[in-house]
Every structure is written in structure tokens, then in C-alpha cells.
Design goal:
The structure holds 2 protein chains of 2 kinds.
Chain A: H1 3-15, E1 22-33, E2 36-47, E3 51-55, H2 62-68, E4 79-87, E5 90-91, H3 99-105, E6 106-109, H4 120-130, H5 137-150, H6 154-157, H7 170-183, E7 188-192, H8 200-213, E8 218-222, H9 226-232, E9 235-240, E10 243-249, H10 250-255, H11 260-266
Chain B: H1 8-40, H2 44-75, H3 79-107, H4 109-112, H5 116-144, H6 148-178, H7 183-215
The chains are: A alpha/beta, B mainly alpha.
Chain lengths: ~270, ~240
């Protein structure tokens, strides 16, 4: 192999794992819950159309950081954040920002599937309706079907779209929640341990789905499963005690991390 | 291996794999020494011992493979643990090949016989064997002692073995040209020298793997060459 080929090959291998254009940027992010500081000077870029995994032991601040990305922490009275977080260069904590619109651009999927107590169709149609994304019934139906297809759920539910969403299996409910998040055409999807309540088969389906979704969406996933982070993400950030210890290409983090704390965590030397 | 796992049995399993590599390394060195000694002294019982040691080597490699596969399945190792397990599988495979090559040398002992030929050549073969054994011992010691920098130097030293092999090759050619009756013994000795040279290459592979296990980075693909003679392509 000549040197040029080697360089080309190396570029091809690493390009997938490089931080592409940052969709979101966190700069010097500090978060306090009352007097307790939960995050310390976090600087992290979220690459566009990549999956970024946030890992770390419980209480390390990874979910806190995730919740900062669509201002979910606003719902907690004692939470205070300083530093800046931008979406396409725009500060999302700017007072002029419409939080409802922000959450449509930065959607969220939670740990426990939480479909509305409505039909499968209504679960997906709700967001587009309130955001005025469909001008008529046909448009709305199209959005629902497309979203269900993108969430790899349509084939399983197409004959019972008007049955309750809560009647689906856990894995199907989680894909319904993903379809609901996709329906408002978000740019970023945040996932907080989306598979922790699912069996291995349902988990595999969600992981496959995440891999497909990254062609169109920027995804940030918090997971306790190191193997899951290794499988689905291109970039991984390791948090410990509120500090972002190390961020890098996922392969690097799981095969040869540079920080001792990351090494100890990913190899199961402390929890 | 720095730090202990939360699950103590994980450490034990990694320790068992590491011990098997050391055992195979020790056995490999003993086999190369025995093979050379049996060749130089025309010691057929010693050659037989080396041949039977290869069975032990093969069994250890199988045991290591099984333990490594089971560990991957059970623990899903990450970072240095993953490198240690995958590196061990690869090192074991090189050590197993070293065993095969030593066995092959021993199998030729009776065919070479105890004529004047191997007495003439004993010095060159012995020198080559010493280089190979030093190389192998250095690689195993520095893996056990976790000394990656020394492995970089050792890897470059393989070149000396190649140079010595070229010298042995030329010497054998001379004897064969001198008297065609030497051809049979010389051909066997040539294979023995080639086997020693290949053992050196496997030691180099082990050095590269051991370096990756410890440091997490691959050594550059190419190492500098002193001996550019392509003797296999243009022997004369």
C-alpha cells in the first residue's frame, strides 16, 4: 500500500468520526440546582447529522446537559444555568427565543415510553396540529404516515392507527414516541436512555432506527450501556462529577481513551 | 494492569489469559533453544522432546482462545481490556507458529545427520539462533514488564536476524556448489535457517501486538530495512 492510499484510507475511516459542522455548541456551561452545582464549565460541540453519546456514572451530569439542550431544565424552579448553548449559532437561552418553537426544533424522547392516552394516529398528529404544520387532513395523514415509516413502526400498526397508543408493546410505544418527535420535523433529537425499559429485540430495533435517523437528524443520546454508545454513536462524551472529562471519536473512547478516568469507567474499574 | 475491576473475577480471567501468554512465551523460547541444540548436537532424543512440546503449545493456544472468547462474551471488555484480550489471541497465534517452526527444525535433525556439514555451519546457525532467542526473550520480557518503548527497539532489531539469514544462505550455496553431495543436508539446513528467520518475524509480530496492547496505538507499518537483498527472488 503506498503512502497516498494509506492517507486516503485513514481519512475515509476517520471522517465519519470527526466532529462535523457543529449543530449545537455548549460553551462554559455551568448548571446549579439551588446551591448544588451539577455541571462545571462544559464545552461540547454536537456535530450535525451525527449521533453523539453522553456516558458516565449516575449523577455525573449527562442528563442535565442533555436537558439544557432544549431548555427542559426551565421546568425546574431551582435550576440555574450560565454559559451559552447555541443552535445553528443562535443562543437558545436568549430571552427572545420561543421555547415552544425551540422544543419543536430540538425534540426529546424519554427513558420510559410516554404515549398520550390517545390513538396511535393522534399521538403523532398532535405536534403537527399544534404547530400548524398541516393545512388539511390529507397533509396531516401524510405527515403521520411518513413519521411512522421513518420510525420503522408503520408496517406494524397500519391496520390499527385508531387504536390506543398505550396498547402497543414497550418497544413499539418507544418507536411511537420517536415518530411523535419526528412529526414536527425537528433538527435535533435528544434521547434520554431510550432503551433502558426495553427488551434486547426492541432495543436492537431502536438502535437500527437511530442509525437510519442520523441521515436526516442530529441525535444526542444519554445511555448507561457502554455497548450501546459504542454501537450507535460516532462521537462520545464522558462526564464524571459534573465535568466533561473527555470527548472524542467513539472508537477512540472505547478502544484507547486518553484520560485515566474514562479508561477506568469504560473498563468497569469504578462506577 | 492498572487498577482493579469492580468485578474481581474479571481481573482473575484477564490474569489467567496473561499467564497463558507468559507460559507460551517461556515454552516457545525453550523449544527454539532445544530445536537448535538438537540440530547442532544431532541430539535425536532432544529433538523428540521439542516435537512433543509442540502438542503442549497447541493445547495452551486452544485454552487461551477459549478463555478469551468466553471473556469477550461474558464481559464485553473495553479499552485496554479489549486490547489485552484481542492482543492475547493474536500473540498466542504467533507463539503457536513459533512452536510449529521449532518442531519443524527438530524434525530435520535425523535427515541432516552428524556429518561434517553441520559442524562447518554450526557457528552461523548458532549465531542466528542466539539472535532469534534474544529477540523472543526480549519481546516476552518487555510484554510481561510492560515496557513498550523497549519493544520499538526490539522490533527494529529483527533486521539483524534477516542479515544473518542472508549470510547463512550464501554460505550454504557455496557448500552446495563445492560438492553436490552436500545438497541434501544443506537444503535441510536452509529450511532450518529459514524457520529461525520466520520465528524472528513472529517475535516481531508479538512486539507489535504487545505495543498496541499497552499503548493503544499501532506502530508504523514500515520499519527501516538494512538488508534489501531479495534472495528468494534472485538467489545467485
Amino acid at each position: 500500500m503506498n503512502q497516498m492510499t494509506e492517507i486516503a484510507l485513514e481519512n475515509a475511516i476517520t471522517s465519519a468520526a470527526r466532529p462535523l459542522d457543529a449543530k449545537m455548541r455548549g460553551r462554559d456551561v455551568n448548571v446549579f440546582y439551588g446551591a448544588k452545582q451539577a455541571l462545571f464549565d462544559v464545552n461540547l460541540d454536537i456535530g450535525e447529522r451525527q449521533v453523539t453519546a453522553l456516558i458516565g456514572p449516575s449523577g455525573c451530569g449527562k442528563s442535565t446537559f442533555l436537558r439544557c439542550l432544549n431548555r427542559m431544565n426551565d421546568t425546574i424552579d431551582i435550576a440555574r444555568i450560565d454559559g451559552s448553548i447555541t443552535l445553528d449559532g443562535q443562543d437558545i437561552y436568549d430571552p427572545k427565543i420561543d421555547v415552544v418553537e425551540l422544543r419543536a426544533r430540538v425534540g426529546m424522547v424519554f427513558q420510559k415510553p410516554n404515549p398520550f392516552p390517545k390513538s396511535i394516529f393522534e399521538n403523532v398528529a398532535y405536534g403537527p396540529k399544534i404547530h400548524g404544520l398541516a393545512s388539511n387532513k390529507t397533509d396531516l395523514e401524510e405527515i403521520v404516515v411518513t413519521s411512522l415509516k421513518k420510525a420503522s413502526l408503520y408496517e406494524e400498526v397500519k391496520d390499527r392507527l385508531h387504536e390506543p397508543g398505550t396498547g402497543l408493546s414497550g418497544g413499539q410505544q418507544q418507536r411511537l414516541c420517536i415518530a411523535r418527535a419526528i412529526a414536527v420535523s425537528p433538527e435535533v433529537i435528544l434521547m434520554d436512555e431510550p432503551c433502558s425499559a426495553l427488551d434486547p429485540i426492541a432495543t436492537a430495533k431502536i438502535e437500527e432506527l437511530i442509525d437510519e435517523l442520523r441521515a436526516n437528524f442530529t441525535i444526542v443520546i444519554v445511555t448507561h450501556s457502554m455497548q450501546q454508545a459504542a454501537r450507535v454513536s460516532q462521537r462520545t462524551a464522558f462526564f464524571h462529577l459534573g465535568v466533561l472529562v473527555e470527548e472524542g471519536a467513539t472508537e477512540q473512547i472505547f478502544t484507547a481513551p486518553s484520560d485515566k478516568r474514562t479508561q477506568d469507567y469504560v473498563t468497569g474499574r469504578f462506577g | 494492569m492498572a487498577g482493579q475491576h469492580i468485578v474481581a473475577s474479571f481481573d482473575e480471567e484477564l490474569g489467567q489469559i496473561d499467564r497463558l501468554i507468559r507460559d507460551m512465551g517461556d515454552l516457545g523460547q525453550a523449544m527454539v533453544l532445544g530445536a537448535t541444540q538438537s540440530l547442532l548436537d544431532n541430539d535425536v532424543p532432544l529433538a523428540q522432546r521439542v516435537i512433543s512440546d509442540d502438542v503442549v503449545m497447541d493445547a495452551r493456544q486452544r485454552e487461551l482462545d477459549e478463555r478469551a472468547i468466553a471473556l469477550i462474551a461474558k464481559r464485553q471488555p473495553m479499552a485496554q481490556d479489549l486490547r489485552a484480550v484481542v492482543g492475547a489471541i493474536r500473540m498466542a497465534s504467533d507463539l503457536e507458529r513459533i512452536g510449529d517452526l521449532a518442531k519443524n527444525i527438530s524434525k530435520r535433525v535425523s535427515a541432516v545427520g552428524s556429518g561434517a556439514m553441520q559442524r562447518k555451519l554450526s557457528h552461523s546457525i548458532d549465531t542466528m539462533s542466539q539472535l532469534v532467542r534474544a529477540q523472543l526473550a526480549g519481546v516476552i520480557d518487555n510484554y510481561v514488564g510492560r515496557n513498550p518503548q523497549a519493544l520499538v527497539t526490539l522490533r527494529a532489531d529483527d533486521e539483524n536476524i534477516d542479515v544473518q539469514y542472508t549470510a547463512v544462505f550464501r554460505e550454504l550455496l557455496t557448500y552446495m556448489m563445492e560438492d553436490p553431495r552436500n545438497i541434501t543436508a544443506c537444503t535441510h539446513l536452509l529450511f532450518c535457517a529459514k524457520n529461525l528467520e520466520r520465528i524472528g518475524d513472529h517475535a516481531t509480530n508479538i512486539a507489535e501486538n504487545a505495543y498496541y496492547v499497552m499503548v493503544g496505538q499501532q506502530l508504523p507499518l514500515h520499519r527501516p530495512k538494512l538488508d534489501e537483498t531479495s534472495i528468494s527472488a534472485r538467489p545467485a
